[in-house]
Sequence to fold (247 residues):
Amino acid sequence: MEITGDETRAAWAIASRKYEDEYADLLEEARTVELLPAEVAALGELVAGADVVHPMSGHGLDDLALARLGARSVLGLDYSDAALTSAQRRADALGLPCRYTQAVMPESGLDSGCADLVYTGKGALIWVADLPEFFAEVHRLLRPGGSFYVYEAHPLVPLWAWDEDEIRVRRDRGYFEPSHVNDSFPANGAVERQHTLSQIVMACRRAGFEIEHLEEHPEPFWRSGGVSAAAWDGRVPNTFSLLARRT
Fold:
């Protein structure tokens, strides 16, 4: 994970205990976890036999899903010891070819050209302070012709209030603001980075990628428990997916 700022680091140190505290529940989920249908459709045959690197891997459940789709190996990178340790325990318990190492992106510490596929998202890019540096590192990790895939919260998501009766834009957020304080997870003063969709796309292109797929989706990848927000009813974007090839 790319973490900047003392408050953000402290917030994630607290929040990451969740992965250890909920180990048993996450292990049960891990036994049958799958990528989202949109992810499977976009990735197609790219996963089978691939060496995959997953920056900001978090709880690691997506890594297990990638292994079940036929990845030869999956290497998860994260800042949190708690996340890495619990993810490795689950992978070992299920006998899947996933391994984990600590890294503060964009300095992965990995060899150039070590991956056929770099996969990330679902709450990753909001912690990336410097998109050009991040995409340059992803490009370096990939072999020629390798692919980079992101399934991520849409940049508009921080603007949506969680009102149930109507879609509303929060008065304390702006689409073109550089950052805002997270008040959901991990909270505790963590500062998210705000990137527009065009900034993400152009940073990817400038790093040397050819974009092969870009799609916006109405479904959120995460919903707060007990909340049924009007912004989740299919009328506004909540996620996007991007597939790019290293040229």
